[in-house]
Design brief:
Number of helices: 6
Bound molecules: adenine
Strand order of the largest sheet: 5-9-8-6-10
Shape: globular
Structural class: alpha/beta
CATH superfamily: Nucleoside phosphorylase domain
Largest sheet: 5 strands, mixed, barrel
Order of helices and strands: EHEEEHEEEHEHEHEH
Number of domains: 1
Number of strands: 10
CATH topology: Rossmann fold
CATH class: Alpha Beta
CATH architecture: 3-Layer(aba) Sandwich
Length: 238
């Protein structure tokens, strides 16, 4: 079984480095790549960089090059619910591009124009396996992940209003781009994000304080899914 995991930041990669024996893969590709085994799974981990364009590029590259059975995007996010604590983990029920705005032509916010793609549903089995992974002292919940090319701090009231109209639980900068590429390529995917801040005025400071702790919590949930997939309980039919 091949699994590809994409992170954006070095600190998110470090969470895997701290826990697994990673081998660097000399790649001519667009992102630093590493390999590790997890039971029966051969896992390729890529540091794809920040933003939707980088994430989509690396996701398509990874699908073509590594032909994964599953694709995970993981790391940190801003929490959009007051009941989410810093360090809690949001597992994508679905993802949407909150800054894809063709509403002037009557296209709903977040919808890719001239397609049906708006709320991109994650693989239900991967979501279920993620939710079954305990993270000590934190909640692991299913939710909607909003993605855009901005670090959200609530300074822009109009943007916040648009964000809230999509009823999201967490906001980040890559998930829906990876979800879109995975959906078009028919690869089961999930986005795992731990809350580093609340996308508010304190977000820049909280982000720095919580980055590594939140990244470690996201790693723990990825490991839980890999555990279940490779010990049989989560193995897909075929
Ligand atoms: N990733 C972590 N926190 C974020 C925020 N507030 N906005 C966008 N991406 C984030």
């Amino acid at each position: 079984m091949n699994v590809t995991i994409i992170v954006a930041l070095q600190e998110e990669l470090d969470a895997f480095h701290g826990a697994r024996d990673l081998t660097s893969v000399p790649e001519p590709g667009p992102a630093p790549a590493f390999r590790f085994r997890y039971g029966a799974a051969e896992v390729t981990l890529l540091r794809g960089g920040v933003g939707k364009a980088s994430a989509a590029m690396v996701a398509q590259y990874a699908i073509d090059r590594f032909t994964p059975d599953y694709l995970f995007m993981t790391g940190i996010a801003g929490g959009l619910r007051s009941w989410l604590a810093l360090g809690d983990v949001v597992v994508s029920r679905d993802c949407v591009q909150h800054d894809l705005d063709v509403t002037a032509l009557g296209v709903p916010l977040g919808q890719v124009p001239f397609t049906e793609h708006r709320f991109l549903a994650a693989d239900p089995r991967l979501v279920e396996l993620a939710l079954a992974t305990p993270v000590p002292g934190q909640r692991v919940v299913a939710g909607r992940i909003l993605t855009g090319d901005q670090f959200i701090t609530a300074a822009d009231a109009a943007r916040m209003q648009r964000l809230h109209s999509l009823d999201g639980d967490a906001v980040e900068m890559e998930g829906a781009a990876v979800a879109f590429v995975a959906t078009v390529n028919r690869i089961p995917f999930v986005v795992i994000r731990s809350v580093s801040d609340h996308a508010d005025a304190a977000a820049p400071a909280d982000f720095r304080t919580w980055l590594r702790r939140a990244a470690a919590n996201s790693y723990a949930v990825c490991a839980g899914i890999l555990d279940a997939l490779t010990t049989g309980t989560g193995r897909p039919a075929g």
